[in-house]
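Annotated sample (chain length 427).
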Amino acid sequence: MLTDDRNRFLTQTGPGTPMGNLFRRYWIPALLSEELAEKGCPPVRVTLLSEKLVAFRDSNGEIGLIEEFCAHRRVSLWFGRNEDGGLRCPYHGWKFDVSGKCQEIPSEPDDSTFRHEVSLTSYPCVERGGIVWAYMGPPELRPEPPAFEWATVPANQRYHTKRLEECNYLQALEGGIDSSHVGWLHRGELRSDPLHHGSKGSDYHLSDRKPRFEVKESAGGLNMGVRRNAGDDKYYWRITPWIMPWYTIVPPYGDNPLHGHAWVPIDDENCFAWTFSYHPSRPLSEVELEVMREGGSLHVNQDPGTFRPVANRDNDYLMDRAAQKAGTSSSGVKGIAMQDASIQESMGRVADRSRENLVLTDRGIALARRQLLKAAEELGRGTPLPGLDPEAQAVRSASFELDREIPFDEAPGEPTKVKEGVSHTSI
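Output written by the structure step:
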């Protein structure tokens, strides 16, 4: 468990907080590229780490992420007009470029230089893998662009979405680390979900409800090794990488796509849950894409024009008590992603971790908290941050059978290492 003070330390990420300072040292997935679909498109509201911002793609195709409120009278620039290399405030016509610099103040005399003294906070962005990534930390410490495999495969090998999750980032992240719940909460979907077919892994999940956890430190953070019995002489291993600060990669089933997650704080009580689905060595099939587009697998149906799931806390996640009673669903909530979200949101906006009771299968959660705390406390002391190096990001999850005497981190063939053009390791 965590004390109230440590819980606040971990979950508060606004400007000037220790965790906020830590998270601002990483590239942050901020928007889907399709949200800024074309040059000169309307601006988009963005809240990251409790900072209210607007994003826009200017008439030259460059992306800006600047503070939301005009430097003149603090009008929201979401109402602004995207024109000729900048965003113009509708109130008095002040205009700002993608770097936040003021370009024009129409009411000032022609010889006025005051506009050169005015600027808005802005954050650099890069586009990679259909995602707009933002860096909100010190300019001189900006890391190399993201090197996650889902951001580097060809466009026809990936499908990414994001959804609003109405709780703190940490309890959502901890759900991604916890593999022991899969055989309980998702047991119906292990049989029915189309992207779990063709794998013995589902059988092992359902037949062995007492998984054993072995957690190893990695260059990015942690590798969560979870083993289940696979006969008399082998274990079935599922390896989930946790990459600092909020990424997990779900172990695969058969030749189905891999899925990565990120839980990015909007503020201290809400986050965006990103799902990155991709295949390392082939295009996604039409069947796979159709499942994802219709809210299947780890994706969800959303209210049009929003990122809020159709099943949400206001309608009790469309819970089906009859299905729960019949045993076809553990929770009565449909879909893997919404089963996770409903459970995580049910803890409250920020879970009271001083009242929890962790057990052996929670070892990964405890170690992840410890790494986050340590990284934030040591920030500024010159200690290298886990997960910033491109090699630490270029990893995969894996699932495989292994002789019982072989540790999972000594499995032959380096199954969690990205090998260009080579598929993932999965059964």
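Annotation: The chain has a mean pLDDT of 92.
Annotation: Residues 32 and 131 are 5 Å apart (CA to CA).
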